[in-house]
Amino acid sequence: MTPVVEVEQIVMRYPAARGVGLRRRHLADVVAVDGVSLAVEEGESLGIVGETGSGKSTLARIMLNLLEPTSGVVRYRGEEVTHVRGAQLQALRRERQLVFQDPSGSLNPRRTVGASLSDPFAIHGLLPDRAERGRRVAELLEQVGLEPGHASRYPHELSGGMRQRVGIARAIALGPRLLIADEPVSALDVSIQAQILTLLRELRRELGLTLVLIAHDLAVVRHMCDRVAVMHAGRLVETGTVEDVYRAPRAAYTRELLAAVPRMPQSSSSSST
Q1: Is 51 part of any domain?
Q2: Residue 198 has what pLDDT?
Q3: d(CA 239, CA 49)
Q4: What average pLDDT does this structure show over 65-71?
Q5: Within 13 Å, how many C-alpha atoms sit on residue 40's CB side?
Q6: Cβ contacts of 23 within 8 Å, gap of 6 or more
Q7: For residue 243, is it within any domain?
Q8: Which residue in 103, 101, 98 sits closest to 120, CA to CA?
Q9: What is the DSSP letter of 268?
Q10: pLDDT at residue 272, as a whole number
Q11: Does residue 119 lie in a domain region?
Q12: Please, which residues have CB within 8 angstroms of residue 211's CB and are 6 or more apart in sequence?
């Protein structure tokens, strides 16, 4: 079976900061991702874990063509898409969406929730009828556990958990096949993290999504994913099923992550957080 998304020998380098005048120094480039190869199969949920600076978020953005790698190949459903541009890239973005880490920073504070959820349709030339677009926005809000009336609210009028639900609604608006969630609960209160994770898990099942979850700890991944890829210092140090990695981690770094696993909070049925 052809993977939904596949990266092969991905390298991402950023130029190091240079001084000026007498302080000018020749510094080595920063290597954010170093020779990573990874495939995500149709319908699976893959967790990519690692500490801050491990390269996991950079890799996720390369998978979505939000960043262009220094070298390596990105394939989507068997087709190379490493350097796509224009209409081809826009078409791909309908099928591949990102849930951002910070729900506050990902929503325009000057636009209502309804306007933000309408943006994907306007960008892609869909649902030109205003009434039809309004109905679709209401459906999306209900799908993520909010009320249709929230469409008239502004982001500052919502809690952090509600803003993240709006972000998720925007990500699924166009019916994507691949959803990448970049630390979707790390900016939220511990008491509501499990609610958002449960929502993502339910949407994955209902919509038949392939899910890539970026996280910094294995507790979240165990709650959500079939398989895990562990990154450290830009390299992929271990992959396997979640249960296999939990039971018998091969890499020393994975064992360190497991030693720091917190207990997951219990989910609540309330959607007002």
Answers
A1: yes
A2: 95
A3: 10
A4: 97
A5: 30
A6: none
A7: yes
A8: 98
A9: -
A10: 47
A11: no
A12: 44, 45, 46, 179, 180, 181, 200, 204, 224, 225
- pTM (global) more than 0.85: yes
CA distances to 26, 177, 196 from 189, rounded to whole Å, are 43, 29, 11
Structure tokens at 149: 């009336």
- Cα 141 off chain centre by: 19
The token duo for 85 is 């541009």
- The answer to whether position 137 is within a domain reads no
Count CB neighbours of 6 within 10 A: 19
- Domain of residue 241, residue span: 5-16+27-104+180-259
Beta-strand pair 96-99/178-182: parallel
| Cβ atoms < 10 Å from Cβ of 4 | 24
What domain count does the chain have?
1
Phi, psi of 10, rounded to the nearest 5 degrees: -75, 130
Residue 149 CB-density burial (10 A; 0-12 exposed, 13-18 middle, 19+ buried)? exposed
Tokens of residue 241, six digits: 């099923």
**Residues across the chain:** 273
Tell me the CATH number at 210. 3.40.50.300
Q: Rounded mean pLDDT of the chain?
A: 91
DSSP assignment of 187-237? TS-HHHHHHHHHHHHHHHHHHT-EEEEEESSHHHHHHH-SEEEEEETTEEE
Q: Please report, for the chain, how many H helices and E strands are present, in that order.
A: 9, 10
Task: Identify whether the C-beta of residue 178 lies closer than 8 Å to the C-beta of residue 96.
Answer: yes
Q: H or E element: which one contains 11?
A: strand 5-14
